[in-house]
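Structure tokens please, single chain.
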Amino acid sequence: MTAAPATTSAVQKYRGTLFIEDARIDRVDAFPGDQFIMRMNVPRAAAAATPGSFMHVQCDATIPLRRPLSIMRANAGEGWIEILFKIVGEGLHALARKRPGDIVSVIGPIGRGFVPSAKRPKALLIGGGVGIPPMLFLAEQLKDDDHDWQSLVVMGSEIPFPFELAISAIATPWIDDGIVSTMPLLESWGVPARLASLSDFRGTYRGYVTDLARAWLTTLAAEELQEVGIFSCGPTPMLQAVAKLANEFGLPCQVSLEEFMACAVGGCAGCVVPVRTDEGPAMKRVCVDGPVFDAALVFPE
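Here you go.
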């Protein structure tokens, strides 16, 4: 299979939805494992951001290629977004050296995000490593939505989590009483969340995020499973396992793919992945055709 070049109509479809802005860095928080949360003032992008979309960030004026970074939170009223990244390579090392008041060029928000269905109000959000940000963004959106969503967030990491662990007071009777650690922000929102790791962090489930998710799913009756939808972001092996879990329980699943990108706006076709379509196999661009796809179409059994 070969990727078709981006047509004029395909590119025009995204005009008016992407913005090039000089982002002022308002805050930089460092966490163990070379992880950073950065808040940027980008009013137009913040107003248009949706869970699953991402920003293409110029890490430094001396580094031509930008880096695609998922949006963790966005506040349209105050005009800011937050991104989480882990230093991997020269570009993100340069970005980590930025300080409040510095300016970086960004393009965004880019991509098709998650689309929850009101017919599936029990939202299971599964994030791994730097795939955690879209899950937090989605959890916040569902919390603020008028529909009665019942979210459960499951997150995993083998390096320290990019937040201080908190002890949850939200009951999760489907798991052992000792599994109590959560993210403070999710706890403050009243969103149940539990953490998984093989690194024996305090109060976390020892195992994979899919094992922790399965522990919850197995407690649901058939009629309750009919209300569940899965949303996930993380490394490809994890997403493959999540897709397999969704298939096991017969659940719809949306996954946000991670892929190397050059232009990130659909022009270079350097981030294509094989996807099943009604017309047969096709190559789709992760940047603008995704990054969110139906898991069954990218990870068929």
